[in-house]
Each structure stands twice: as C-alpha cells, then as structure tokens.
Write a structure and sequence with these properties.
The protein is built from 13 helices and ten strands. The chain is an alpha/beta fold and 292 residues long. It has two domains: 181 residues, D-Maltodextrin-Binding Protein, domain 2 (3-Layer(aba) Sandwich); 98 residues, D-Maltodextrin-Binding Protein, domain 2 (3-Layer(aba) Sandwich). It has a five-stranded mixed beta sheet. The chain has a three-stranded parallel beta sheet with strand order 2-1-3. Helix 5 links the parallel strand 6 and strand 7. Helix 1 packs across helix 9 and helix 4 crosses helix 12. The longest helix has 19 residues. It is globular and about 55 Å long.
C-alpha cells in the first residue's frame, strides 16, 4: 500500500468534507493508499511542498508570489466558501463603507478574495473600510464581537452554517463570496519539484476524492450525516439547508477545474497582489484524467 502526507491549511467542510467522506467510505483503502492527514495551517510554503496539499487558494498565491510550481490535480468547488455576516442596518457590501470589518490577512486566499470582492463593490479595502485583520480559524471571537457591537461585520468560513447563525442573532448575510468571485478552490495540489503529480500515491488520493465527490453530490443523506460532524452546533435541518444551498449545487461531480473561471481568477488575484500573472490556468489546474 502507498502512503502520503495530505495537508490541510484551513478548517471547515470546504477543506475537510471530501477527505472525511473518502475515509469514511473506505475509498483510500480501496485505492491502495494510506493517508496521514496533517494540520499545515501555520506551516510555511517550504514545508508544505513535501506533501499533497488540500488548499488551492494558498498554493495559487504562493505560486504567484514565490514561484513555487504548484499543480492542482483535483478541485472541490469553484465557489469560495466564505460569507460576510453583518449587524442590523447593513444591507449590501456598499454599506460597509466606514464600518469595522473583521477579515483574513491579505496574503491568505480568503483575505485576497474578499479584497477583490470589496473592490467589485466600489470599496477600497485599505481606505473605505475599517478592516480588522485576524488569523483564519475558529470564528467564535468574531461572533462574540458582533454581538457586543465591537465590529459591524465579519468574513467567516464554513466552520458554521452562516445563514443559521445570522438568523439566530438577527444579523444579515451581506454576501456569499462564491456569488461574487469564482475560483477553482480546495482539492489536491502538489509541487512537482518534490512530489510528482503521477506518483501512484497522489493519483490514488485524487481517485478517492473524486469518488467522495460523487457521494457528496449523489447521496444527500450520507453527505448531510458527514457534514454534521463538522457543524455539530446546528440542527439537522440547519445542516441540510446549508448542504442544499452551498454544497450540493457547487461542489464538482468530477474534480475538474473550470479553466475559464480559473483564468479570470488568476488575473484578478495577481492584480490584487500586485504581481504579474506569469502562468495560464491550464498550467496550474491540471484537467487530465487520473491514472488507473
């Protein structure tokens, strides 16, 4: 049996649900690979290069900025799974002008993506919004600060069901980032300098993840049961509503990237980072079928 380190760089179902499903369904074992799941949330890019990485946003940024030749072999979704929650009185992204917004750091995938979205709404994230940068992860402190009125809005990930949280607190969901900015994201990426894309262990992981995507798309009851492992603070009805609105319609069925969306996203991210886009979408997102 092959072995491989599989590294996640963020938390939440967008990163972990496919991996969890592949494990629970015995896809890894059936594909002949033993996966050691590693938490690389605070790893530097050099350390990440030694294994397969789930987070594609971070690898895309490090390829643009650092020249690491990452290749994405599998894509879970083209819609970044982040939301903007806001206190009463804010009804659109434009209403964030002059307001206090908790955001991810600009050099992270979600931090960069929300800056692109804010600019689309006519806001300069450095001048028009009072951004308060905090590290990605558990958004519990953001929720506490929203309740206390210390911030007006926060960009949160899917460690919760954002619409259910907003409804319970009388807040609004100003935006689902995936509605405003499309980029093939979360899946499996490797640096060919250290891990060849056609390595049998890598290909086994990709096959297992594509099988898991089929389960998520075609077996809602099983997918919701697994999703509840990540959204344990919610009712089954809330979890199912989140699945039906944000996962079922937006997770891929085959792990393939939309190269047109990828090309537009690379251009936008490079412009936000102030670096040239030196590679095409097809150079980063590999759409070839897996080897048997």
């Amino acid at each position: 049996m092959h072995t491989i380190d599989l590294v996640y760089v963020g938390r939440g179902p967008h990163e972990e649900l496919v991996t969890y499903t592949a494990d629970q369904q015995d896809h890894y074992a059936e594909e002949g690979v033993h996966v050691a799941l590693r938490d690389g949330s605070v790893w530097d890019p050099e350390r990440l290069r030694r294994g397969a990485v789930i987070g594609l946003g971070r690898t895309l940024l490090s390829r643009l900025v650092g020249g690491i030749p990452w290749v994405a072999l599998n894509v879970n979704t083209q819609r970044p799974q982040f939301w903007v929650l806001a206190r009463p009185g804010l009804n659109s992204l434009a209403d964030l002008a002059g307001r206090r917004l908790a955001v991810h750091p600009p050099h992270t995938g979600p931090g960069c993506f929300i800056r692109v979205v804010l600019r689309q709404a006519g806001l300069d994230p450095d001048r028009d919004v009072r951004t308060e940068v905090r590290s990605p992860g558990d958004y519990g402190m953001d929720l506490r600060r929203l309740r206390a009125g210390e911030i007006d809005a926060a960009v949160v990930g899917d460690t919760m069901a954002p619409e259910a949280v907003a409804a319970a607190n009388g807040w609004s969901v100003l935006a689902f980032v995936g509605d405003h900015f499309r980029i093939p994201t979360v899946g499996v990426a490797v640096d060919p300098t250290h891990v060849h894309p056609d390595d049998p262990a890598v290909q086994a992981v990709v096959r297992a993840h594509r099988r898991a995507l089929q389960v998520i798309r075609n077996d809602p009851d099983t997918a919701v049961r697994y999703l509840r492992a990540f959204l344990s603070g919610h009712t089954e009805e809330e979890v199912r509503a989140h699945y039906e609105k944000f996962i079922a319609p937006y997770f891929t069925a085959d792990g393939q990237a939309d190269l047109a969306a990828g090309a537009e996203a690379i251009t936008a991210v490079a412009a936000e980072l102030g670096v040239p886009a030196t590679f095409a979408a097809a150079d980063f997102y590999r759409t070839a079928p897996t080897t048997p």
